[in-house]
User: Fold this.
Amino acid sequence: MKLIMFIALFSTFSIIVLGGDTIKKETFTVYGNCGMCKSRIEKSLKISEVSSAQWDKNTKILSVKYNANAITLDSLQKIVASVGHDTEKYKAADEVYNDLPGCCLYRENKESH
Ligand SMILES: [Cu+2]
Assistant:
């Protein structure tokens, strides 16, 4: 009897653990210019919570597949902003942005002079 209860409990637990990962696919806008931006943006999301991240320099759209139980879309946008790239929700810190190579300064048009 005790053994049956144990097995029942254990299998319920296993189902919760195994069924825990919810992989979500989302897209959001990330500002940048060139191939260097692309590798910087994608490299910032090489973390265990993200299974794939691809940025298109023409459309400025980042497609990301991530474990929604482990990280939020908001946090992903913050990570991208932390390496110098504005997203649709978060702005990169000026100090980080100003350290980017010249070809990557995507704000140029907005903030010249
Ligand atoms: Cu660049």
Observations:
- Helices lie at 2-18, 35-44, 73-82, 94-98.
- The radius of gyration is 20 Å.
- The chain has a mean pLDDT of 89.
- Residues 32 and 106 are 5 Å apart (CA to CA).
